[in-house]
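Order emerges. For instance:

***
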Amino acid sequence: MAKATVTNATIRPAEAEHFGKLAADWWDPQGSSAMLHKLNPVRLAFLRDAVDRHWQGDTASVKPLAGKTALDVGCGAGLLCEPMARLGALVTGVDAAAENAAAAQAHAEGAGLAIDYRHGELSALGLGQFDLVTSMEVIEHVEDKAAFLRGLAQHLAPGGLMVLSTPNRTLASRTLLIGAAEGLGMVPRGTHHWEDFVTPDELRELLAEGGLAMGEPKGIAWSVGKGLHLSGDMSLNYIVTATQA
């Protein structure tokens, strides 16, 4: 459930290499990124609700992000960028791995979507500010989490919205996300490092250091009947908004 990382001088080369090797089959729902394909609709449901609430838009609109700019940091091959573009946003995706950016660009062009993909250090790209900044399953892969979040905050336009998701550091996440998911081949081995997972309280403090106020987190849980779904249970994974304090 992770993605390659881009941050303010905190890219881990080994992480970028790990995820870059997955670029070729990133869009295969049965491939190495199958878990992300299952996770994406859950994240999008939260994102759509957050967008409607933040900008008080028409909940029936098919393009609630029309006229807005969006930045996805650690975009992988574009699984979140493309839906945001279809929701009307002018989207830029950034990833540490050049292979991912290339795969994302090719897929977007094939789908007829105008998305700007870049790779490298976010701080070196001169991208400016965006109405919406997202970074899903990324912060657990960066070396300096405070610097990473400061970098995201610098790219958030006044009055903008940020949405983040990440695994929680709990016994359940160690058992299921690493022991079971990686052990059974549902997620490529070596994707997760439990000690790098961030708890909601830790994330709240890190965001505050960057001048951001965290909203109420929502859990992403799993059950036999529902699969991955939004929940009050944050023991595995959670998703949250942030705005300028």
